[in-house]
Design goal:
The chain is α+β, with helices and mostly antiparallel strands. It is built from three helices and twelve strands. A hairpin with a 7-residue loop joins strand 1 and strand 2.
């Protein structure tokens, strides 16, 4: 009986330890799956990241620059692009600054805060990159094409690290 109680206590402690959040990560979680896969990139000391994609209609690059706040919110800092129209604004709203220079447009945000956002990985041959800490991650190769992912910054537990897909390559 003592051995069974001891084994149960060890199992409970181990389960608790495995579920304690331990490390900040950029997390991509499938949104349209009954058993969603988690892909992650461990966060280092750098708080800025960039998403660069080729606009599916204009076929020109869009560069979005973000910053992670201390409370793991995502602050959209700016968007840079070459074409106006569908999905790419030609003016600033309140709290934004719009500039046009040398055929490039920049939309800067004063305080655009996000908890998370959905990233769609289109099944077309255009670029979709996540740039962080001097590395470029080709999301078209790392994530499933035709799938949507909830993107957020959060602490992952050891269990989530073991179950997830480490896109850092380590």
């Amino acid at each position: 009986m003592r051995k069974a109680i001891g084994a149960a206590m060890i199992a409970a402690v181990l389960a608790a330890v495995m579920n304690v959040p331990i490390a900040d990560s950029f997390v991509f979680t499938e949104t349209r799956s009954e058993t969603p896969a988690i892909h992650y990139i461990r966060q280092s000391d750098s708080d800025r990241f960039v998403i660069r994609y080729t606009h599916s209609i204009h076929l020109s690059d869009v560069i979005e620059t973000y910053e992670v706040t201390k409370d793991r919110k995502i602050r959209l800092l700016k968007m840079e692009y070459e074409d106006l129209a569908i999905g790419l604004p030609g003016h600033a709203e309140e709290g934004e600054t719009f500039t046009a220079e040398d055929g490039r447009y920049t939309l800067e945000y004063e305080n655009r805060m996000l908890d998370s956002f959905v990233l769609y990985v289109a099944d077309i041959d255009t670029d979709l990159e996540f740039r962080y800490d001097g590395r470029v991650y080709d999301l078209k190769k790392l994530l499933d094409r035709g799938s949507s992912y909830q993107f957020e910054v959060r602490k992952l537990s050891l269990l989530e690290f073991l179950k997830g897909v480490n896109t850092n390559g380590g």
